[in-house]
Write a structure and sequence with these properties.
One of its GO terms (molecular function) is DNA binding. By secondary structure, the protein is an all-alpha fold. It is built from nine helices and no strands.
Length: about 190
């Protein structure tokens, strides 16, 4: 008879993700995860087979969480340019301080190295782009790919914030930058 699991895979993957995000992807070992979640290393190996699969499952779990967060945020904002800003500001919460953001970039590196994780990133890009584009549906003369343009601007704003994190709190910086972006794309074009 098999013993019942004392922790679900989701609980273990959450602990693994916290470990990766706090100390970098190389910190994720069966030994460190065993210490973090209270299960034995051999139990973790039985569940996840090897370090590469553990890392992949952890990051797929993180993508699942980002998909849910994006769906919830998109459903809660008005379908307007201001709603698009609100959606991206909501997704910016949780990045933390500059150290946390920098560690997150190391985790992103792992997503880029693995084809399955890159595919998840591409799927999220499409999901987010559609949600943002829906916020501009009733605005005339908006670029066809406004959702992707705005998402790209948001990612750029996050990166530029990281070079001067003490100048302004992250979500305030992102919101200001996105409002300027919306003003620029919704202003009537002037003859040059």
């Amino acid at each position: 008879m098999t013993r019942p699991k004392t922790q679900s895979d989701e609980q273990v993957l959450e602990a693994a993700y916290r470990l990766m995000h706090a100390d970098g992807p190389e910190a994720l070992t069966f030994e460190r995860l065993a210490q973090a979640c209270g299960l034995s290393g051999s139990t973790l190996v039985q569940r996840f087979k090897n370090k590469a699969l553990l890392k992949q499952r952890t990051l797929l779990y993180a993508w699942d969480g980002l998909d849910r967060k994006t769906e919830q945020a998109a459903a809660s904002v008005p379908r307007s340019p201001a709603g698009a800003v609100e959606l991206l500001v909501a997704l910016s919460r949780g990045y933390g301080d500059i150290e946390s953001y920098a560690e997150g970039l190391l985790v992103l590196r792992e997503d880029l190295r693995d084809p399955a994780l890159r595919a998840r990133g591409a799927a999220w890009k499409a999901q987010l782009s559609r949600a943002l584009a829906a916020c501009f549906a009733n605005i005339p003369r908006i670029p066809e790919d406004i959702g992707l343009l705005m998402a790209a601007h948001w990612q750029g704003a996050l990166l530029w914030w990281s070079f001067g994190p003490d100048d302004m709190e992250l979500t305030a910086y992102v919101e200001r930058s996105l409002r300027r972006f919306v003003t620029a794309v919704t202003m009537p074009a002037r003859n040059l």
